[in-house]
Hints:
This protein is of the alpha/beta class. The chain has 5 helices and 7 strands, in the order βαβαβββαβαβα. The protein has helices at 12-25, 37-46, 63-73, 88-96, 111-128; strands spanning 4-8, 30-34, 51-54, 57-58, 61-62, 79-83, 101-104. The strands form 2 sheets. It has a 5-stranded parallel sheet, with helices on both faces. Strand 6 (79-83), helix 4 (88-96) and strand 7 (101-104) form a beta-alpha-beta unit. Helix 2 runs parallel beside helix 3. The longest helix is centred in the last third of the chain and has 18 residues, at 111-128.
Amino acid sequence: MPIRILHLEPNLSDAALTLLTLKSAFPDCSVERIVSLKEFEEELEDNGFDVVVSEYQLSDGTADKALKLLRRQRPSVPFIVLSAVRETAVALKMLEKGAADYVFKEHRQHLPSAIQEALQRVSTLRQTVPAPAAPQPEPPSPAPA
């Protein structure tokens, strides 16, 4: 089954380069590009995707906010930051908050392996963590005497 990628990227040139990188590694993947947190919130409700790739600096916020939104609604979907922001403190903060990876844009060629590793971790986790038990029906109430 092809990988479904939601790409949060306000810069058209960067989005085009990322699309080329992704299509080279995953020819059958589907990539949907959105440009704002507002669109991201709508996509969380409407669309199915396997992984989110996000620039850190967005027109209406940061990837930090996008990660919080994703964790609330789709906690098992990997979130990877692909950013021009080359601050180690920012990268570490995002990883501590639950991002699967942080890739600098000048190392964009590492994005496909970051995606594969993140999806593999999710798959492994699903196989090792038992599904929540179905709620048990309540026992019948005693009949009145």
